[in-house]
Amino acid sequence: MTTQTLTAPAVALEGVTRTYRSRAGGVHAVRGITHAFAGGSFTAIMGPSGSGKSTLLQLAAGLDRPNHGRVTIGGTVLDSLSETALTKFRRTSMAFIFQSYNLLDALTAFDNVALPARLARLPVDGAAVTDALDRVGLRDLARRRPPELSGGQQQRVAIARALYGKPNVIFADEPTGALDRNTGRAVLALLRTLADGGQTIVMVTHDPLAASYADETLFLADGQIVGRLQGADAAAIARRMNDLEQ
Ligand SMILES: Nc1ncnc2c1ncn2[C@@H]1O[C@H](COP(=O)(O)OP(=O)(O)OP(=O)(O)O)[C@@H](O)[C@H]1O
């Protein structure tokens, strides 16, 4: 892992705009967003349905390209990369944690954790894979496949995958959306640990309690950042969300 100071932006968005064409006309999903996510920071993104959260996350992760503006991750301008180079860059520089876990059912937990390294044609360090599974409490379940694991266990496999490669940036879209409260809290505590260890976390969530684990919450409305709260508790975050949804 590249060690970063808290002041170096791990992910920078500059004037990022994404418009979708539809039969009814253009949908301005993200409108000129500029924001720097500091290295080692944990940021939550909240906002009403349709405010552009998922689009913003996809743009920041290079899964979608902006119509205008640019995204820089660890000093690399994503726009300057070909599709092939971008895919390779994504495999080594970032991890994704989704509500739906995104694990391959045919592979064991161990092989799911090792998958990004294999796809990037890097040697797999078996002891490090086991260590990553151990850190999320799944050492004994390494040989199980996702259908043989609970939702919380599957999400912990996804987190172990993010732990193993030690990517600088972890993007999470509703990582606790499908989990019960206690399992969700355990997952959030793990994400908090990753940020405290220097990885940068950008997480979309609808849940003020989940956002309270972050250092900062950004509030989106109509494709723009309309507010932010630092170090706020769940009640303060919920109040701000209520104000936005009025
Ligand atoms: N592929 C697409 N084609 C056309 N419009 C799209 C597409 N994806 C998203 N949109 C539109 O862009 C806007 C932002 O969508 P986005 O999914 O980013 O919002 P969101 O804040 O993540 O919503 P939710 O909380 O409901 O998941 C919405 O108006 C949505 O309908």
UniProtKB/TrEMBL annotation:
One GO cellular component term noted in the UniProt record for this chain: membrane protein complex
SMART domains: AAA
Top-level lineage group: Bacteria
Coiled-coil regions listed: none
Domain ABC transporter, chain residue ranges per copy: 11-245
SUPFAM superfamilies in the cross-refs: P-loop containing nucleoside triphosphate hydrolases
Entries under InterPro entries matching the protein: AAA+_ATPase, ABC_transporter-like_ATP-bd, ABC_transporter-like_CS, ABC_transpr_LolD-like, MacB-like_ATP-bd, P-loop_NTPase
Molecular function terms from GO: ATP binding; ATP hydrolysis activity; transmembrane transporter activity
Alphabetical keyword list: ATP-binding, Nucleotide-binding, Transport
A UniProt-annotated Pfam family: ABC_tran
PANTHER family documented for this protein: ABC TRANSPORTER RELATED, IMPORT ATP-BINDING PROTEIN
Official protein name in the record: Putative ABC transport system ATP-binding protein
